[in-house]
UniProtKB/TrEMBL annotation:
Similarity comment: Belongs to the UPRTase family.
Residues binding 5-phospho-alpha-D-ribose 1-diphosphate, per UniProt: 79, 104, 131-139, 200
Name of this chain's protein: Uracil phosphoribosyltransferase
Organism: Halobacteroides halobius (strain ATCC 35273 / DSM 5150 / MD-1)
Catalyzed reactions: UMP + diphosphate = 5-phospho-alpha-D-ribose 1-diphosphate + uracil
EC number, as in UniProt: 2.4.2.9
Designated gene of the protein: upp
Length: 209
């Protein structure tokens, strides 16, 4: 069973509070999402392996650590996941970015992939899938299936707010994928919005309604 990591750092929690407030406008919402994603990425990348290399400071030769081994890929689920990409890439500039987009077929209610473009070496990268809201889990489960079909293996899922229902669904379908979230909220309402949540993350990020 995968783990759920709730990142309760005071800076993350403070920014999340302002993100949730209904008065927060698009500009601030975007900035806060970016900042929280960066702070979360710091924790999500904690187990990246490092190696010692020899360098020379102005004073002496020394051994010092650099990141080694597997490289990173960030994969936003379109569209709201886009708001979290820059925050991660700012910290790991060498990361490649894949994209996955899906919609729900109105008749079968099955998720249908309309876009999926991954780095060619996706199988040898650590992948961080990002989407602000883990609500029912349906989209995340399908998006993870799509990237696994393209060869992705080491995957973490990072969101801002998760509902217990979505966590359960994701863990059942992808027990190998750890979940990193800034908060686990109470429940979903009848319209599959997270309560208390923050509303529609995509609309608030992009100023649509
Ligand atoms: N997607 C959102 O943007 N918000 C929710 O509360 C649930 C799904």
């Amino acid at each position: 069973m995968s783990k759920v990591h709730t990142l309760d750092h005071p800076l993350i929690q403070h920014k999340l509070t302002y993100l949730r407030k209904k008065e927060t406008g698009t500009k601030e919402f975007r900035e806060l999402t970016d900042e929280i994603a960066s702070l979360m990425a710091y924790e999500v990348t904690r187990d990246l392996s490092t190696q010692n290399i020899e360098i020379e400071t102005p004073i002496a030769k020394t051994q010092s650590e650099v990141i080694s081994g597997k490289k990173l890929a960030v994969v936003p689920i379109l569209r709201a996941g886009l708001g979290m990409v820059d925050g991660v890439v700012d910290l790991v500039p060498a990361a490649k970015v894949g994209h996955v987009g899906l919609y729900r077929d109105p008749e079968t209610l099955e998720p249908v992939e309309y876009y999926c473009k991954m780095p060619t070496d996706i199988g040898s990268r650590e992948l961080i899938m990002v989407d602000p809201m883990l609500a029912t889990g349906g989209t995340a489960v399908a998006a993870l299936e799509f990237v696994k079909n393209r060869g992705a293996k080491n995957i973490k899922f990072m969101c801002l707010v998760a509902a217990p229902e979505g966590i359960e669904e994701l863990q059942a379908a992808h027990p190998d994928v750890d979940i990193y979230t800034a908060a686990v909220d109470e429940k979903l309402n009848d319209h599959a919005y997270i309560v208390p949540g923050l509303g529609d993350a995509g609309d608030r990020l992009f100023g649509t309604k």
